[in-house]
Amino acid sequence: MSPVLTHALPLAALGIALANVSGAAAQTDAPKRPNVLFVIADDLTAETLSCYGSPWCRTEAIDRLAARGTSFTRAYSQFPVCGPARAALMTGARPASVGVTGNGSADQLSAILGDRPTLPELFRTAGWHTARVSKIFHMRVPGDITKGVDGPDHAPSWTERFNVRAPEWQTAGEARHLSHEKLRFEPDAHYNLGFGTAFYAVRAEGSGAEQADVLAADRAVELLAGFGDQPFFLAVGFVRPHVPLVAPSAYFNAHDVEDMDPPDVPDGDQDDIPAPGLSLTSQRTKLTDPARKREVIQAYSAAVAFMDDQVGRVLDALEQHGHADDTIVVFTSDHGYHLGEHDLWQKLSLHEESVRVPLIIARPGDRAARRDALAEQIDVYPTLAELAGLPIPTHVEGKSLVPVLDDPAAEVRDAAFSRNGRGRLVRTERYAYLAWDEGSAELYDMDADPDQFRNLATHPDHAEIVRALSARLAEEAGVTGAETRRRASDRPTPARRSPAAPLPGGAPSGETGRSGG
Question: Which end of the chain is less crowded, N or C, counting CB atoms within 10 A of the terminal residue's CB?
Answer without folding.
Answer: N
